[in-house]
Amino acid sequence: MIEKSRWIEKFESELERKKVFCLYGSIDDDYFYKESTCDINEFFEKKFGDDKFIFFGTDYFEKMIESEEQQDEENEINSLSNGVFLNTRVDFLKNVQKLENSSEKNIIIKDPRLFFGDSSCYDYSYTLRYFLEYINSEKNDRKIIFICENLGDFPEKLTVNNPYVSTIYIDYPEEDERETYIKDFLKFFYHREKSGQESSFIKEDFNIFLKITGKRKLKEIANIFKKSVKTKTIYDPSKSIKEMVNDYDFGEKKSPWVNLKNSTIKRLETKLKKRVKGQDEAIEFVKKVVYRAKLNLNGVMQPYSTKPTGVMFFTGPSGVGKTELAKVLTECIFGDESAFKRFDMSEYKSPESINKLIGSDPGYVGYNEGGQLTNWIMSNPYSVILFDEIDKANVKIWDTFLQILEDGRLTDNKGNTGYFTESIIIFTSNIGNAEFDEQSEKNPRKYYLDALNRYFEKEVGRVEILNRFGNNKVVFNHISEDVFEEIIENRLKMVIENIKKRIKNLKLEIENMEEMKQFFLKKLDDSKKFGARLVNTLIETYFINEFSIFFTEKNNKENEIMAFIKNEKVEFRC
């Protein structure tokens, strides 16, 4: 049995040497203390017994200011409560004066902002300086303990280079703590109703459960067990322990990976090649990732991996099908494109904008809305997420993405966690495209991989991040002349079919497809280096617009229309 959680050991070792303690991190979990578990309130009660601790909260401050006669009542407050900001120097001085006059030796304050007031207040620096002088004075023989989730909520002058202050991070439970905790709960788990006997927790399942619950609080692990009891979950050898944890994380949702038919996977390559032209190598690679995902073999080198089902980095020239491939992949696996989410990384250029992914800090606009990325993954755990043109984002964003790449999880500004274990994550970039020249054409794959490496080395400053992608870096090809012709022909055929669906009984054909393709190739001209993205614009400008004018003004209700090239223009006749 574990005697004490690590943060408690540190707290006790410094209790006699320090006057102020700043506890932050996982403050709402259970912890080991004296061969049992307890929350933070219970710990302080067990630790200090009848020694009076005052838990400052809204009610306490209000009563303390109102009347001296209510002092006894205030001393009985023994639970953390949400507070309000103090906004005036008078309020703060009254509180410090009460500290000086009170008999209690140990004081606990949930939120430092509750005590010091709003940092935007004009006299905030004065209140902080006054408090620092107070704790450093000989007349202060009290222990003052601040508790909050984020280190940034503490005044910097309080925590930096202050010999009287101990800053203690309350981390997620270590593996040995989770192991002990899980063993204590086994009697509640995998109950066999038919025999009325408890089934054994298979050693392999135990080890898997231990690994995939890393970075989870003890209370969260307890809730997984409690759900098993509540829903009367019976141990099913055919159902993996990972699936059972997924049931807790995502609800009773059927995994598209489990239901993915072999015939669907076999048709995947055909669908991809139909929609994405000239990228056979990329398609072949993506197909292998899907095969591994179907068999749950991604991350098999680490048997207890909680990483995303698939992670890929698409790089290469612009407009060659990187986003389109991700969309088709989503459609093939999840049935439609509603499970596809694209993040335009040019919207995350500033360090502050990164918070949009996980939500704004308390007190800032958008706090109650949560994070764009965390909201998506909590609602769509089975999805394909595309971070488009990642090189346009602030490089600090990789600190956020590392949590996803390593742990398969991300926590928002309110403490809610989203899990990426069943999703595919794709990053794209056009790094090096602007400098691509004739010399680079000799070995395009090497050129783009070298450019990617330079980006992580010189701009991000962390090549090890790129190494986490391993061989999952996919280089897309430049589009050749033949492929451009194929793309133009397919787009024209698609447009004609869509027009005929919208105009009943219409017969619309192209007189000479080869001549029509050459017309659009000439219009592309030097823009080919920007990929096929311009093809749609050109077809809309020179084909769809001209057809609309012709059909509206000159058609005379004829149903058979022929498109042809004349005088360097697309024209139509009945």
From TrEMBL:
GO biological process: cellular response to heat
Ranges in coiled-coil conformation: 489-523
Keyword Manganese assigned: no
Top-level taxon of the source organism: Bacteria
Keywords: ATP-binding, Coiled coil, Nucleotide-binding
Pfam families hit by this protein: AAA_2
Protein name, as recorded: AAA family ATPase
